[in-house]
Every structure is written in C-alpha cells, then in structure tokens.
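Usage example:
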Amino acid sequence: MFRKLLSFEEAKSRINEACPLKSLGAEELPLLEAVGRILAQDVASPIDVPSFNRSTVDGYAVIAEGSFGAGEDNPVVFKLVGKVDVGAPSNLAVEEGAAAEIVTGAPLPANADAVVMLEYTREKQGMLFIYRPVSIGENVMLRASDVAKDETVLKRGATLHSSQLGLMAALGFSTVKVFKTVRVAIISTGAEIVEPGRPLPAGKIYDINTYTLASAIAEIGGQPVIFGIVEDDDDKLLRSTLERAIADAHIVVTSGSVSVGPKDVVPQILNKLGNPGIIIHGVAVKPGKPVAVAMVRGKLVFSLPGNPTSSLVIFHLFVRPILLKMMGKQEYQSPVLRAVTSKRLISARGRRTFVPVAVDEERNGQLIASPILPGQSGAITTLSKADGYVEVRETQQFIEKGKEVEVFLFRNLREANVIS
Amino acid sequence: MFRKLLSFEEAKSRINEACPLKSLGAEELPLLEAVGRILAQDVASPIDVPSFNRSTVDGYAVIAEGSFGAGEDNPVVFKLVGKVDVGAPSNLAVEEGAAAEIVTGAPLPANADAVVMLEYTREKQGMLFIYRPVSIGENVMLRASDVAKDETVLKRGATLHSSQLGLMAALGFSTVKVFKTVRVAIISTGAEIVEPGRPLPAGKIYDINTYTLASAIAEIGGQPVIFGIVEDDDDKLLRSTLERAIADAHIVVTSGSVSVGPKDVVPQILNKLGNPGIIIHGVAVKPGKPVAVAMVRGKLVFSLPGNPTSSLVIFHLFVRPILLKMMGKQEYQSPVLRAVTSKRLISARGRRTFVPVAVDEERNGQLIASPILPGQSGAITTLSKADGYVEVRETQQFIEKGKEVEVFLFRNLREANVIS
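Running the assembly step on the lines above writes:
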C-alpha cells in the first residue's frame, strides 16, 4: 500500500489539533503535595502583608514629629509607656511625647509612625533620651507594602517550586489548585518480549520500552499505568488491552515489536476501534518512520517503534510535548546544550533526521556530540550512550564535522555528572 | 560575647567533616519506584545480550560459504527447510545448501552464520535462489555483542533516569538497590508565626520557611518531615521538639524567628543537648551570619535565619550539598547560568556575600541579573523575585555593573518559563 508520509511539522500540527486538552481538570492539594505541579488558577492575596505596620529594627516607636530637632548634644526626652513584642497584640498607644520599646517584627502601637533605632537612644529611670530625629515612616514597613489584599501574586500555569509554595503559605493558603497529572497507559507488544524478573526463554529478550517510557513519563510528573506485554499475533487480546487502556488512561502509548513491521497490527486494530481511528500513519522522520497516531473514543493513542532509543526519541518529539500541554505546562522545553559534532551527521533522504548523540566534555571544557546510530550497535549500548539528539533538517544533506549544534537532552547532564 | 566568625570555607569543611554519611543505607525498590534515585552498587549483567545470534534483517539464514560466487546472472540455489519467527524457539538447523526463512529479531538456526536479505532472493516451489553472496556474520548480531555476561554496565552513584532504568530492565532486573532518601526534620521557631490555613491574629504572620525548605528538600528527592511551629520563648517545648526531631530524622533544619536574634535560644539548647553540641556559630557570610550548626547524638542540626530568602540561600549553600552527599550524589551542582549585572553588586565588608538576584531575558536574548536585597523590600516580594544568587568574594569590594557573572539558581528557569 502506497501512502505519502506526513512531514514532521504536518504530523505535529495534526496531533496538536487532536489533543484533548479539556479532558484534564484541576484538583486541590495540600501545599507540600504540590511540589513541581502546575497552578490551575491565578492566585490573589486574601490579606495585606504585612497585616500591620511593622518595625524593621529594635528601638522605640514614637510619633516622628516629636523627635524633630533632636541632636547629639540636645536629646529630646520621651516618656516610656510600655513595650511591644513580636506576635503579641497589644492595646498600647503612644501620644505626643511618649515612646514604646519595640523589637524587630513587632507591630507599631497606635499613633506611632516611626521607630528610633536603639543605638540613638539612652534610657534612664523610665525616661528615653533620643539623640537623632526620625522622619515619618522611618524603620517601618507599612501595612500592605509587601503584598496588598486582592493583588495577583501568581499566574495560572506557574510551576510550583519552593519560592512559589512559600509565597502561597505566606498568604495563608494551606492548599492549592493544580492541574491533574496525566495518566498514561503503556503497552509493549511483541512475541519475543519477556517481563524483567522472570527467566529468559531461548530466543526471547526482556522488555525495555515499558521502563524507559514509564520513567520518562514519571520524570515530567505524569502517571504511568503499566498494561504489560501483549503478543502482537494475539489480535483479540491486543484489542481488548487497547480498549481497557483507552478507558482507563488519558492517553495511550504502545511500542511495537520488530516483528510487527509489515503487518501493522496495532494501527489496524486502532482503525477498527475507529472514530476516527488512525489520524497519522508514517511520518517523514528518522528514526520512527512507522509511527502511528490514533484518536479513539476521545483519547490519543501513540504507536511507537520497538527499538528503545528510537522509541525514546519519538516519545520526546511527539508524546512528551502533548503530556506537558495536558498538564498545563504550555511552553516547557527540553534541556538543550550546545556542543560540537565529532563527525559528520548525515540526514536520511527526504526525512527530518534526529541523530542520537553522546555528549562528552573535553579537558578544555569543550562539549563534543558524537552520533550513535540505533541499529548499527546493539539496542542497549545505544540506549546507554545516547544523551540526547541533534536535528538535521530535510533540506540539509548533512551537518559537517566540527560544527556547533544544539543537543536536545533526554535528561539533565549536569545532574547526571556527565558535564561539570 | 565576642566570637570570631568562621570563613565560608572553614564552615563548609567543618560541616563536611561532621557529615554522618554512614547513617544512610541502601534499599531495594521495584524499577519504576526508583526514578531519579541514586544507584547504591555497581551493576553487572547476569546475561549475554543478545542471548542468541540474532538476525538484524528479514531474509534467509544460511551457511555463508554456500553463497560464495552467487551473482545477478548466476544465482545459487538453496533448499528451503523451514522458518524462524521472533520469540519462537526452534530446533531447526541448516546444513550445507539449506536455507531457513527468518525475520528481524529472530534467533539464527543451528549452523547458520549469516542472513541473506529478502531483496536479493527469489523463492520458487520450495527452492531459494540467492543473487548476491553474504560473508560470515553478515546481518547477524552475535550473542553477547551488545552486553556480555558479567560486564559492568552501571556504576554506583549513577542517577536512574529513563535510559538507566531501561538498561536494568533489558538485563532482566525487576528491582534495583538505591541509596535511601534522607529524612529531614523541619522546625519553624518564632512567637509571631502562624500555620497557613488558620485565621491570622493581629500582629502575627504566616509560616513561610516550613514550606520553602520542605519543597526545596522534596525537589532534590529528600523526605521532609514537618515538626511545625514552636514559640521560641518556650524553652521546654523547643527542647523536646528538637529531641524528637533528632531521634526521628537523619538531619534537622530549624529556622529562627526575627525575635530570637540576641537570645540565640536554639543554639543554647543545642549546646546543652551536647556531645559536642554546637560546632559552628556564626559564619562570615551575608545573608545568614547568625547561622548555627550542631552535632547532637550523631545528627547534624542546622539553625537558619528567619528571613525566607536568607534561609533559602543558606539552605542552598550549606544544607543542600550535605543532603545530596547523604543520598549518594557526590558531585551534584546547582543549575548555573551566566548573566550580566544590571547594577553594581556590593559585598558586605569582610564577609562572603551572596546577593539574591532576579534573572530576566532581554529582547536580544541577553540575560540580566538584578540584585534584590532581603530586608530592603518585603519578605514575600524578595522571595518571589529571587531566581538565585551571585557570589561576591570577601576580597572584592563589589562586582561592577554590566559584568558577566555566574548565577546559582534556586530552580530551573527554563522549566519555570523565565527564559526561553
């Protein structure tokens, strides 16, 4: 069957149009269960912060006007009327000529509009000598000067890191409304695939893709749901597993076994499930040309290649952006770094080519990107060496050796100690 | 009381010497619960991968020698003796002059040492015509050529991302031994501090540090244990809370309230708990000069400043590296980026100064670091604006406006959509 392959951009935009963004709602969580989650609404402050006029120094609260004219040789004398501590509400008020002892963080007593620092005063038998004048507002943080009631402090879509959660706490929130995480069903297909932990019969290999895909999903905050391994020649089981996965999850990712190739079993079943069924079958990319995408019962289903590195590349290109979008992270990017190619990177004729590369740091600090070709070396060697990929456009025949390129990373290399 | 402050380096090395690295052991987890965790042992492969000689193409398995001399005009004729599928063990063997149909990924039958690609053959009534010779090993991935049994594939200390977990699965592991995560007790002290979610009495403020510190701990994979708010004038409760925290957690972090200042309540109690008690009290840094560190009953206790941004900076400088070390991440670094200062950054005389900065991207892509001084603006404004900090050494009076500096980030700015 002849079919014209979609270009990379055509495939991306067709998936984006089909993405069922509205299927995920928001949920309310305790602050500390929301670390790394995405805010689902704007947050306005329910209070003034500070909620009182607050001293920023240790000293004496006064009406500033009474201190005017004070100097080192002619102190102004105030009458001490009490003390204000932090956190201790008081009914104290200062009148003209009166002063109240105050510590950093305590609320100013009524009428006071400034604080004289301790070091410019001397106390003697209930009387306070002030040796330097203060102006109105000096050493005072006014009510609402940090955050005013009803002020918007965080916007929908913000990622909740330590500062943002501290901010929510400061305003008195104990819970926060965040976007739900996406549930992603994962199915591995193939007659030769065995679950890790079991004995390995002759001629079989262990399942890799369930684990690479599930951890890549977990790393961005998604919730992988493992549906295990289904033999691709068992049409009935494959169909019922796909139906269960579609019913249970927000989105489904299958990875095909090498044996599927010409039979296209998964796409055939997805097309039968229908409405519309397959929306993409084959994209002009390398690796991953046979990738298929379906929309079934309002859910997206991705059918990825069986080779682990290829399926990880296709996951990063097509699935990850959709998962992030569904979780409210509209513009999240992969970590990127710039490196120099160790040899020529060759594109596949007429296809957007994503060359898996290893990144290494040379002694002089220069980062080097070396291509690793899935298929040329073993699946595991390739997977363990590839740190990310470099894009070669259809219009380029190759990228020359020694050229600076952008590497889109599978993970943070600094964290993995690959680079310093 | 006069005391000479320790330098930043002296404090760091005194903490490092005291760090109770041995207190954390390893635990065994299912692969998918180990995402982002640190491998606690070297991993050697228990199997050969592939565990059989594997065809890398669709075609016919033969003894290569029999194909020598084949050409487009003089095909060599083989007798077809059967078919090998993926995952289907067979007792098939090929003798001289015999060929077996084979698909990609399937094990070679006995005696076969090469695979002729489908496109260079033609089948007719049980006979196979081969139009091109193959050499020994052609289109075959030999047993153990990807990974050999007993080969070390991952090293202790590796972070388990998708590729590493895929690798473990490929070798048949269903569990992995990782370092335990560190349990960190968090105590907020201060008479004016109220738990978020409760009403705010006059003169009080909501607890921020419990939430900033707990999320910063969770973000690096630690396990925060919240001990709540203790009034710092309740010596007995503070002491018993510290004792419970020390007994329960691997490490304890308190943050002091502004009112503690001259009284140093927490350090006094820690010193009484003793053996040795306080090992550091006061470091020549800004912010965070009053920071205290104790070793009590084999556990480190950090007493951080009350100002949220200051306590977050001190957490990043002193506590975070220790937590990472305890969890096995020996050389983990904060994310760093280079930016240009928007104004002169001034150091505190004789102290290592860490200036909190906001990072913004200008239209031309230039990153600008603007200082935000805790204390000059409100605590919340400062906290929400600071993306990280810039270090100014004691030997520098200032860093000039317009100079390129390294910014140590509190979080990944790309992820937070601050920069593109």
